[in-house]
Structures are given as structure tokens and as C-alpha cells.
Design brief:
heterodimer, A: FAD/NAD(P)-binding domain, 8-stranded mixed sheet, 24% strand, B: mainly alpha
């Protein structure tokens, strides 16, 4: 009987666990370790953040779902990985610390035959002075939509601002990235447009100044180096698409910015030209930078080998080319395919947890040497596809395959993204994008890096319907309800 | 053609150098009949992408 341990129960880990359980049945053991008691459909958090959805509409408890299908669920955070076992016992294991009420703080060791690291990001608020509270959590000056609870708080603060505007007091909104190395610009894009849409609905739009601040060197970079869409017979840069929408909706933008300090009602930031600026706000949502969750790795004799297994950013090394050199030498083939750790072949990392070989966007530094460029996004579709591919590989390896049998390279897969620009059955809009491949391949698709037959974008009500339907579909799928496998990743 | 909806754009501002939708384009964004057909088109495109991406 094989034991497969999945650390993390988000989109990627939950997908891997669900498929492993389905394909391996009761002969083998699937264990999910996650500190959260609930699963969160993160793409809909922005709607919670503007009061268009409740928390209950975007989360559900994991325990009953896992119990239904026979997955061993441990509400705990993973602390360390011991891929060589310990003295006297070669069995690899992880150490965990329970976060559930009944076992809070208790530690345990969980042995494994295969390990999937799907731990996702640490929301590194403290990377920017004043963005965090100094203890790893969000500070008091800004809001966030990264979790459902953060989004509820964000909506409460938004409502206070709306009340002030109704009373005649102008308000300044600042939405974007809270550090020069952030990813997730798409979430900031969605939130700023949903706020603008909400303010229009409430009749206070003319009382608001709304500004986007981002580490992207141009609007529409999205951490993907921008995208060229096939629109009206032209290969149109996402820069044009994005600037058009920002200009139409009267949103100002500050780009190439590294926010280096957040104070009450004010941020300080550095631009790529090296100049330092300040921007005042009444309401600010700034995405924090991501890092790995801080897993340590130990050899059999207790030696700390974290540097062997993890990249400096805390994400796990996989079969990527980490020696690709300068931007001009980057290739699509730098990106990992099997997501297998090169040192310990029974270990995989998926979703945000794997260490990318480099960014997708061109690395940039300010005139002062400060790195200011987006880091690569790992959105829902590729994250889920990685989870499924690794589940397929592990299933085949348990049945005798010597090597992973399935691949999920971001340079060989596409992504369907739907970015909301405001919710409403007949008034909402969203940008529906298909991007192929996610990581541009300038050798295969010269000049634009992407397949113009498969890379499209459009804005409208239909895309909003798609996003809302996907919300329901993916929650149905995640709850492992009848027919869940028919819903593609 | 009315451009009242973009009166906030100032010449030579960053917003000045991009493309802005005008009447028909804006209408089509939320025209239910037109968007019904766009809904079908978006789903077809996404299905093709999904099929192309699974290995």
C-alpha cells in the first residue's frame, strides 16, 4: 500500500488529492495536510471584497468532503520534510503541527511514499514596512482580498468610504501591488474595476479618485510579459487593451513602482527611474509579495538541506532550468514539465509551490538597483492541471512506471482567464482571455511569443456570465459532487 | 459621435494615447442578444484551449 501525502488543500493540492483518491481507490492512502479547515474559491474573493458575495458563497468545510471519499485529512501546517527518514528508519516523513481546535499545537510525523508540495504562497506582508504588522499578518493601514476573511474586512472598509462619499467627502482609492516583486496583478486589476463599478452603482463615483499602482513596467503586463491578443486582425498588446479600459473608466495608473513603506493614509514608493514619491489614500488594497511557506528540509543525520531542495524564495526546486542566465537567453524549455524534485524523485511541487526558473516578465531594476518587476503568476487553471498531471504520474509510478508519465509545463499549456470588471447579471462585464502558451515561446511564435490562433481577449457581459458560472462549477467540482470529473481543470 | 463619456481625458495625459470604445462598441458590451452569441464563442474558444492544454 502506498502513502501519498499532499501538503496543501488549495486548488492544486485538492485537485491532486481528489484524482489520486479516485484512481488509486482504497488500496492506497491519500493524506491531505492543510492548516485551513475550509476550501476557498479564491477568484471570487474580489466579489466578497465589494459586498457582492458572502464568505459562505466562496468557502466550504473540507472535512466532510474528504470523509465522504476516504481521504485522510489533517488540519495542520507542515513544518519540515525529512526525505531520507531518520537514524534507524529510512522511511521519509514530514513533521506537522495541528491547527485544529482539538489538537492545536500538537506535532506529529507523517510518513510518505510520495509527497506533493502544494503549500501555495506565504502572504509576505512584512516584506514591505507598514504593509504587515511585523508578525506575519496584514497591517492596519491597508486591506486585502487574498483570503475570504480579508475580503470581508475590505468590504467593511469600502462601505465606510461609500458612506463618507454620500456625505460629501471625497475619497482616494489606491489599488495595486505592495512591493516591487509582487505577482497577482490580475487580482488587483479585478478589484479596482469592481470598486469603480460599485461606486457607480452607489452613485458616488464622482466623489472618488481611483489610482492603480503596480510593479509592472507597463499596464497589462500581468506578470506574463504582456500578452498579444488576436483582435480584429491585429496582434494587439494587452498594454493597449488595459490602458483602454483604465482610461475609459477614469482610473489613473502608476507603473514600475516598488512600494517600500506604508503609513496611515500614505504610501512611499520608488519608480524605475530611481525617483521616490508619496501617494495619499483613504482606502488602499495592496497585494503582498509571495514567498514559500518556510518549510525546512533535513537529511537523515539531521543536517539542514533546505538549500538543496528549496530555492532562496522558499519554493521547491523541480525539473526547471535554474541556470538560464540573462533574459536574452531564456527559453520556453526552461520551464519544468514533470514538476518532480531533481534530488528526491518521490517528491513533487505544484501550483505556486514550485520554484519557477525565472520570471516571465523581463527583470528590471531601478536606477538605484532596486528590483522592480512582477514575478510569475500561477493561476487556477494551470495550478489544477499541474495537480492532475502529477496525480497521474504518481498513479503510474505506483503501478510500476520508473519516471513521471505526465507533464504540465506552463510553456506548453494555455490558460483561460476571466477578469471581472464589475458584477451584475445585466450590467456586469469581464475580460475573457485565452492565452496559449502561458509562458511565451518566442522561438515557436516569433515577435509575439504566443499562438495567435489561440490567444484572444474580449470584454463584455458574456464574459461576466462565464465567470459567474465558473464560480458555481468549480465549487461543485471541489465538493466532489456527482459528475465532478466532467468539469475540466 | 458622442464622446461625453470620456470628457475626463485630458490631452497629452497618459490616458490620451489609447483607444476608447464609442457608442456602438459600448452598447454591444452589455447588449444581451449580442452577448448571448459571444457567450457561445467564448465557451468554444475555452474548450479548444482546454483540449489543447491537457497532455
Amino acid at each position: 500500500m502506498a502513502k501519498i501525502v499532499i501538503m496543501g488543500g488549495g486548488v492544486s493540492g485538492h485537485t491532486a488529492a481528489s484524482f489520486l483518491n479516485k484512481w488509486l481507490g482504497k488500496k492506497h492512502e491519500v493524506i491531505v495536510i492543510t492548516p485551513n479547515s475550509q476550501w476557498n474559491w479564491i477568484p471570487s474573493n474580489i466579489w466578497v471584497g465589494v459586498g457582492e458575495m458572502t464568505k459562505e458563497e466562496v468557502v466550504f468545510p473540507l472535512a466532510p468532503v474528504y470523509k465522504k471519499v476516504g481521504i485522510d485529512y489533517r488540519q495542520a501546517k507542515a513544518i519540515s520534510i525529512h526525505p531520507e527518514g531518520k537514524e534507524g528508519d529510512d522511511t521519509p516523513y514530514v513533521t506537522i503541527e495541528y491547527t485544529s481546535k482539538d489538537k492545536s499545537g500538537q506535532q506529529d510525523e507523517i510518513a510518505y511514499d510520495y509527497l506533493i508540495n502544494a503549500t501555495g504562497p506565504k502572504l509576505n506582508f512584512d516584506a514591505t514596512e507598514g504593509l504587515g504588522n511585523g508578525q506575519g499578518q496584514m497591517g492596519e493601514h491597508t486591506v486585502s482580498v487574498c483570503t475570504a476573511d480579508h475580503a470581508i474586512h475590505a468590504n467593511h472598509e469600502l462601505e465606510k468610504c461609500i458612506d463618507k462619499m454620500k456625505a460629501g467627502e471625497r475619497q482616494k482609492f489606491l489599488i495595486g501591488t505592495g512591493h516591487g516583486m509582487c505577482t497577482c496583478q490580475g487580482a488587483a486589476f479585478e478589484y479596482i474595476f469592481n470598486i469603480e463599478h460599485k461606486l457607480k452603482e452607489k452613485g458616488v463615483r464622482d466623489m472618488a479618485e481611483i489610482t492603480y499602482i503596480s510593479n509592472e513596467s507597463f499596464l497589462g503586463d500581468f506578470g506574463m510579459g504582456g500578452i498579444h491578443f488576436n483582435m480584429g486582425g491585429y496582434a494587439t498588446s494587452s498594454k493597449v487593451f488595459a490602458e483602454s479600459l483604465y482610461a475609459e473608466r477614469d482610473l489613473e495608473w502608476i507603473i514600475g513602482a516598488h512600494v517600500n513603506k506604508v503609513e496611515a493614509k500614505k504610501v512611499k514608493y520608488e519608480l524605475l527611474d530611481g525617483t521616490i514619491h508619496e501617494k495619499e489614500f483613504d482606502f488602499a488594497m495592496l497585494i503582498p509579495p509571495f514567498s514559500g511557506v518556510g518549510l525546512k528540509v533535513y537529511a537523515k543525520d539531521g543536517t539542514d538541506i533546505t538549500d538543496t531542495v528549496m530555492a532562496p524564495n522558499g519554493f521547491m526546486k523541480v525539473d526547471a532550468n535554474y541556470n538560464a542566465g540573462d533574459y536574452e537567453n531564456w527559453k520556453a524549455s526552461d520551464w519544468p514539465k514533470t514538476l518532480q524534485n531533481p534530488t528526491y524523485k518521490n517528491m513533487f511541487a505544484i501550483g505556486i509551490a514550485f520554484a519557477p526558473p525565472h520570471t516571465i516578465s523581463k527583470p528590471m531594476k531601478s536606477a538605484n538597483g532596486t528590483p522592480i518587476n512582477p514575478t510569475p503568476p500561477r493561476t487556477g487553471m494551470p495550478s489544477a492541471m499541474m495537480g492532475k498531471a502529477v496525480a497521474q504520474s504518481i498513479t503510474d509510478m505506483i503501478k510500476g512506471a520508473k519516471e513521471p508519465t505526465h507533464t504540465a509545463s506552463m510553456s506548453e499549456m494555455g490558460a483561460a482567464c476571466v477578469a471581472s470588471a464589475g458584477k451584475g447579471l445585466f450590467t456586469g462585464t469581464a475580460a475573457a482571455m485565452t492565452v496559449y502558451p502561458i509562458v511565451p515561446d518566442f522561438e515557436k511564435y516569433p515577435g509575439v511569443g504566443r499562438d495567435m490562433n489561440g490567444t484572444t481577449g474580449e470584454l463584455g457581459l458574456a464574459a461576466h456570465w462565464v465567470k459567474h458560472i465558473l464560480h458555481h462549477l468549480f465549487l461543485w467540482k471541489a465538493k466532489l459532487r456527482p459528475g465532478w470529473t466532467l468539469i475540466p481543470e | 459621435m458622442a464622446t461625453e463619456h470620456i470628457k475626463h481625458i485630458k490631452p497629452y495625459s497618459p490616458q490620451f494615447g489609447t483607444m476608447i470604445p464609442l457608442g456602438t462598441q459600448k452598447f454591444l458590451r452589455t447588449c444581451v442578444i449580442y452577448q448571448f452569441f459571444r457567450f457561445i464563442a467564448i465557451n468554444i474558444r475555452m474548450t479548444i484551449l482546454i483540449l489543447k492544454s491537457h497532455h
